[in-house]
C-alpha cells in the first residue's frame, strides 16, 4: 500500500505524514503495552489506572468551568484535617470515589477528605487506593494550577473480605503504582509502576491522554528552591542554614503554594521542594500516605530523592491514615546538600 497521496494541484506525491501526522500513543494503548512490567499482569491494575484517568478527565472539565458553574469558593465545612473544604474538594472526592467504585478493581479508598476507609463494595478487588482528590484547591479561585495525587497498593487482606487498616498501612515501599494529575495550562497525568516515569498530556478535543514525556528524569542539579518563606522563623535552624546557602548561590525561590504545581516544575527543571516542621505543625503538614509516599515513589523512579525527618520518606513506618510528615524532595544533589546541613547541625545540637 502506498504511503503517498497525489496533490490535485500538482503531479508531486505528498507523504501521508504531511497531511495526516500521527497523533501519538494514547494512555490506554501505553498501559496495555507496558502491562507485562506489572508485578501481577492480570489487567486489573491497568483498568484501575484507566479509572483514575477517567476521573481526571472529569475533574479537568469541572476545573475549567468552575467559575461559570459557580463551584469555586468554600463549601462551608471542614474535612478530617480541620481544613476548610472548597466546593471543588467535595466534587473531586465524589468523582474519584465514584470512578473507583464503578471500575470494580479497588476494594477500598482512603481519601484526604474522609475520616475512615471508604469501602467500594468491590470486595473481590485486589487493590486499594490512597488519594488526595484535589491538592491546592483554594488556588482555583485565582487560576493557579492544582492537582490530584494517588498511591495504589495490592491488598494484603484476603480477596473477598472487607479491606482493613492493614491494607493501607503497608508502607511506602509497597506501592505498586503512584502518580499525579496536574490541572494547569494543560492537564497532565504523570505516573510510575516502578519501571521509570511517564507523562501524558490531555487532548480535550479528542478526550484522550497522549504520551508526551516517555521517560522523565529529574536533573541531578537544580537552582530552584520551593518553600513557604513566610514560615522562616518557625523553621529548624538547619533548614534556614540550607536556604541561606541557596540564596548565597543566587538560586531562585519559586513557590506556588500548590504542592503538585511546585513538584511538577522541579521534576522537569530541577530543584528542591521543602515543607519542614513548624511551631504550628510540629510533625510537618503534608500527609504521608497520599502526598509524601506517592510523590517520593515517583521522584525516586525519576532519579531524585525524597527525605522526611530522619531518612527516606518511603522508609517511614505508617501508624495512622492521616499521619503527617516533613518533606524534602527533588534533585538528588540538592537533597544531599540539605542532608549535609542536617548532619552538620546534629553534633552541635547534641553537644
Automatic annotation (TrEMBL):
<dbReference type="GO" id="GO:0006002">
    <property type="term" value="P:fructose 6-phosphate metabolic process"/>
</dbReference>
<feature type="binding site">
    <location>
        <position position="135"/>
    </location>
    <ligand>
        <name>Mg(2+) 2</name>
    </ligand>
</feature>
<dbReference type="InterPro" id="IPR044015">
    <property type="entry name" value="FBPase_C_dom"/>
</dbReference>
<dbReference type="GO" id="GO:0006000">
    <property type="term" value="P:fructose metabolic process"/>
</dbReference>
<dbReference type="GO" id="GO:0005829">
    <property type="term" value="C:cytosol"/>
</dbReference>
<feature type="binding site">
    <location>
        <position position="228"/>
    </location>
    <ligand>
        <name>substrate</name>
    </ligand>
</feature>
<feature type="domain" description="Fructose-1-6-bisphosphatase class 1 C-terminal">
    <location>
        <begin position="218"/>
        <end position="341"/>
    </location>
</feature>
<dbReference type="InterPro" id="IPR000146">
    <property type="entry name" value="FBPase_class-1"/>
</dbReference>
<dbReference type="InterPro" id="IPR020548">
    <property type="entry name" value="Fructose_bisphosphatase_AS"/>
</dbReference>
<feature type="compositionally biased region" description="Low complexity">
    <location>
        <begin position="1"/>
        <end position="13"/>
    </location>
</feature>
<dbReference type="Pfam" id="PF18913">
    <property type="entry name" value="FBPase_C"/>
</dbReference>
<dbReference type="GO" id="GO:0000287">
    <property type="term" value="F:magnesium ion binding"/>
</dbReference>
<dbReference type="GO" id="GO:0030388">
    <property type="term" value="P:fructose 1,6-bisphosphate metabolic process"/>
</dbReference>
<dbReference type="Pfam" id="PF00316">
    <property type="entry name" value="FBPase"/>
</dbReference>
<keyword id="KW-0963">Cytoplasm</keyword>
<keyword id="KW-0119">Carbohydrate metabolism</keyword>
<comment type="similarity">
    <text>Belongs to the FBPase class 1 family.</text>
</comment>
<dbReference type="GO" id="GO:0042132">
    <property type="term" value="F:fructose 1,6-bisphosphate 1-phosphatase activity"/>
</dbReference>
<comment type="pathway">
    <text>Carbohydrate biosynthesis; Calvin cycle.</text>
</comment>
<feature type="binding site">
    <location>
        <begin position="273"/>
        <end position="275"/>
    </location>
    <ligand>
        <name>substrate</name>
    </ligand>
</feature>
<feature type="binding site">
    <location>
        <position position="291"/>
    </location>
    <ligand>
        <name>Mg(2+) 2</name>
    </ligand>
</feature>
<feature type="binding site">
    <location>
        <begin position="135"/>
        <end position="138"/>
    </location>
    <ligand>
        <name>substrate</name>
    </ligand>
</feature>
<feature type="binding site">
    <location>
        <position position="134"/>
    </location>
    <ligand>
        <name>Mg(2+) 1</name>
    </ligand>
</feature>
<keyword id="KW-0460">Magnesium</keyword>
<feature type="domain" description="Fructose-1-6-bisphosphatase class I N-terminal">
    <location>
        <begin position="26"/>
        <end position="214"/>
    </location>
</feature>
<dbReference type="GO" id="GO:0005986">
    <property type="term" value="P:sucrose biosynthetic process"/>
</dbReference>
<feature type="binding site">
    <location>
        <position position="285"/>
    </location>
    <ligand>
        <name>substrate</name>
    </ligand>
</feature>
<feature type="binding site">
    <location>
        <position position="132"/>
    </location>
    <ligand>
        <name>Mg(2+) 2</name>
    </ligand>
</feature>
<feature type="binding site">
    <location>
        <position position="132"/>
    </location>
    <ligand>
        <name>Mg(2+) 1</name>
    </ligand>
</feature>
<comment type="subunit">
    <text>Homotetramer.</text>
</comment>
<protein>
    <recommendedName>
        <fullName>Fructose-1,6-bisphosphatase class 1</fullName>
        <ecNumber>3.1.3.11</ecNumber>
    </recommendedName>
</protein>
<feature type="binding site">
    <location>
        <position position="112"/>
    </location>
    <ligand>
        <name>Mg(2+) 1</name>
    </ligand>
</feature>
<dbReference type="InterPro" id="IPR033391">
    <property type="entry name" value="FBPase_N"/>
</dbReference>
<feature type="region of interest" description="Disordered">
    <location>
        <begin position="1"/>
        <end position="20"/>
    </location>
</feature>
<keyword id="KW-0378">Hydrolase</keyword>
<keyword id="KW-0479">Metal-binding</keyword>
<dbReference type="GO" id="GO:0006094">
    <property type="term" value="P:gluconeogenesis"/>
</dbReference>
<feature type="binding site">
    <location>
        <position position="255"/>
    </location>
    <ligand>
        <name>substrate</name>
    </ligand>
</feature>
<dbReference type="InterPro" id="IPR028343">
    <property type="entry name" value="FBPtase"/>
</dbReference>
